Amino acid sequence: MTLRFDTPLGAQAPPSAAPTTPQQDQPLPAPRIRSTPTVLIAGDCMLDVYLEGAVNRISPEAPVPVLHLQKQSQRAGGAANVALNLSALECPCTLTGLIGEDAAGQQLTTLLDRPGIHLQLVRSAEVSTIQKIRLVAQRQQLLRMDVEAPPPEACVQSFNAMTRDLAHHHRWVLVSDYGKGALRDVQDLIRACRHQPCRVLVDPKRPDLEAYRGAWLLKPNLSEMRAAVGHWHDEKDLCEKLARLQRSLEIDHILLTRGEAGMTLFSREGLCLHVPALAREVYDVSGAGDTVLAALTCFLARGETLEDAVRAANRAAGLVVEKFGTASVTLEEMGMAA
Question: Fewer CB atoms inside 10 A, N or C side of the chain?
């Protein structure tokens, strides 16, 4: 088995973009691309492919629409989309993940050649780069086809070793777990981070949250939360369920994203902060969770309180769902100075 490891490919910021060193315990100015990232993203990297066209008839072979292909495009998805969102927010990051030595992997690395993104990917000819291929007509999805296969154990172990080593050099570790296999040993990473001065934020996809024991923050959506704790009768019941979960798994914070109802932060010390949604019109929720995770961490990295970072993440989510496909938002769109 041949493994290949990337050196950083992200473009460096020009000298004029380097920020001055702020005093401790004071809010930082709006984030700028710095040469040394404090955020590490570890997770399932994937290529989102959009095949767009028009549907004017039904196939005579089967009762299915015929898509007349007019446009093809590719975007970074999963953990790679988190990295692009951080780049758009001018927050430098290191991205590590598993990709193949195939055309999809090459396209993905090309998409990730953006300012502030430092790539540390494990590549192997025995890995198939994950793809989500969407057939779209009039901006409506007709079908999604996934191209994926469980990665070989040797590749996973190499990825785990690299991630644990990189975590020692970063303040914030983002775990973007889409359940594709790269993070099958995620608990080893979290345990390693607990012995380091870094905090782990997780976007979970597993119904059994035991795998994320000891994380600083979990960011599930409603369906993921129901799969983990079951249904709840009201907000009081939900708070009690999450309090038990946090005590059991030693998780400091849970940020529950609730779609059109906004998001709610539950903290072990008893804080409960609800922020209503800001979207004027929901157009596409693809990758919205990636944007929330990226914006939340960006504003934490610049020195904001967790509560203010949640409000900023909610604002970013309201903007990104108004865009088609996997997308990102900028500081300018958020009404913040660069």
Answer: N
Task: Please check the confidence at residue 236 and state whether its pLDDT lies above 60.
Answer: yes
Nearest-10 Cα torsion for 253, 92, 318, 243:
0
Task: Write out the two tokens for 66.
Answer: 């015929």
Once rounded to an integer, what is the mean pLDDT over residues 205-213?
A: 90
Alpha carbon 331 to its chain's center: 18
Query: Does 321 score more than 80 pLDDT?
Result: no
Told to judge if 290 belongs to the known catalytic residues of this protein, a careful annotator would answer yes
First to last CA, the chain: 45
- Contact (Cβ atoms closer than 8 angstroms) between residue 48 and residue 129: no
The CB density around residue 158, as the number of other CB atoms within 10 Å, is 19
The tokens for 73 are: 């495009």
Taking the CB of residue 17, how many other CB atoms lie within 10 A of it? 15
pTM for the full predicted model: 0.84
Sole residue written with tokens 């300018």: 332
Q: d(Cα 299, Cα 198) in Å, to the nearest integer?
A: 16
The residues, any chain, with a CB within 8 Å of residue 235's CB and separated by 6 or more, are none
How many CB atoms within 10 Å of residue 149? 12
Average pLDDT, the chain: 85
Q: Which position among 208, 284, 290, 308 bears the catalytic label?
A: 290
Cβ atoms of 101 and 129 within 8 Å: the answer is no
